[in-house]
Amino acid sequence: MNIESANRDPGARCPCLSGLPFGECCGTILAGERDAPTAEALMRSRFTAFALGDRDHLLLSWHPDTRPDDLELDDAMRWYRLDIESTNGGSPFDTEGEVTFTAYYKTGSERGTLHERSRFTRHDGRWVYLDGVVG
To answer: Which positions fall inside the YchJ-like middle NTF2-like domain (predicted)?
Structure first.
């Protein structure tokens, strides 16, 4: 699934594996129709953006103090699974939150994982990705 096919089929399963259809989950966040209500929802939308190659959402959802000037995505890398392991804060009433996750990917015949503890904060009232510790 890429961003074009996801937009054509909002009833398809969301890549973040929340169990919801794309159009009821990350699709509305990626389309800019609504802000992520929690840090976890933003984390899920960012995983989905990686899975679909939505570079714009990744940059827009990154805190301006830590956001890179440019972001290149590897078209050969296919993100296919997200496991949320824990959350700390990040509710609709918080201003900071952490999400620890493992994301699974394939590159050709090789498989790999990314394990990260990501920090999120509110900026101009919206949840944004601040930074993360990979490990």
So the answer is: 38-132
Backbone angles phi, psi at 71, to 5 degrees: -140, 120
> What is the residue-wise DSSP string for 12-77?
SBPTT-SSSBGGGTHHHHHTTSS--SSHHHHHHHHHHHHHHT-HHHHHHTB-TTT--S-----TTE
- 70-120 pLDDT, tens per residue? 999 999 999 999 999 999 999 999 999 999 999 999 999 999 999 999 999
pTM: 0.92
Separation CA 84–CA 16 (nearest Å): 10
> Where do the structural domains in the chain lie, given as residue ranges?
3-134
Distance, first Cα to last Cα, the chain: 28
User: At the top level of CATH, which class does the domain 3-134 belong to?
Assistant: alpha beta
Residues 104 and 80 sit within 8 Å (Cβ to Cβ): yes
